[in-house]
Here is the input.
Amino acid sequence: MNAVLLLSALIGATLIIVRGTILRRVRAVWPALFECSQCTGMWVGIVAGASGIVSVGQGRVVDAVVVGAATSFLAMVADAVLLKLLGDPSEEK
Here is the structure.
């Protein structure tokens, strides 16, 4: 249960970074990274795994890779589903 909650929080953090209007200026600094949910999700997951926030019990390096890959994939899927359901906010008039 805790793993699901933590992964959900990482996905949420990723989507806030990628889609949140409050971080628009941060995204302008490095658009290739901060406008891609898969890329940002990978780095959010790597930080969470390496810092020990989320652990799979295999050591910090393996945790960083596994959590980074999982967050990357899940953030990409969540972003795609939300874009399909709600539309792209940048395309609104």
